[in-house]
Amino acid sequence: MGSERVEMRKRQMQVHQEAAASVLQARHRMGNTPTNASNACCFCWCCCCSCSCLTVRSEDETIQRSTFEHRAEETTNCEESLKPTLDDARSWPMSFEKVMKSAAGRGCFRQFLRTEFSEENMMFWLACEELKKETNKTVVEEKVRQIYEDFISILSPKEVSLDSRVREVINRNMLEPTSHTFDDAQQQIYTLMQRDSYPRFINSSEYADLLKSLEEPPPEP
């Protein structure tokens, strides 16, 4: 089924490109070609086609994307390397909020999600948190596009599970991207992790082993 879906999307992309080319040729023959014809679909945020606005990026955008990815990787590595205190780890069963407000908690929970093949949920949530901190309009738009490609697009291997209502909200928001474009989606993924993965994490052997390691006295020097 996966390969059939990819092939279908490829055919759709080809049809879209051919149709766009026909329209531009017709306009040219009529002497009605717009000055921004090469950017005819630069608002194609859904990434359903391979138009020039998705394949040709300015040098500034490339640098911004690399910087964003580098910062995200640094944040991830930092959180995963943090070791919680015993009091911190003991507080996690009280609420999911306790886990998510702790950098060490997020790191440990993300490692658990990796074992359940659902790490993309935490990755998406963290990407949305980073997006909310951004104020530069150009950078916001680039981050929004990148998050869409990484976690919303049906072609992405890291696609998160969202219902049709939230996807419709995202598609509307993509017309005018802001730092809050994915707020509804972020909340839905947060609730999914809270109800589904969090109880298993608290009852897991990984969490029990972590507590045991923190309770053990340090070795004698």
Automatic annotation (TrEMBL):
Q: Which Pfam families match?
A: RGS (PF00615)
Q: Which domain of life is it from?
A: Eukaryota
Q: Where is the RGS domain?
A: 95-211
Which SUPFAM superfamilies does UniProt cross-reference here?
Regulator of G-protein signaling, RGS (SSF48097)
Q: Where are the transmembrane segments?
A: none
InterPro entries for the chain = RGS, RGS_sf, RGS_subdomain_2
Report the protein name in the record: RGS domain-containing protein
From which source organism is this entry? Answer: Perca fluviatilis (European perch)
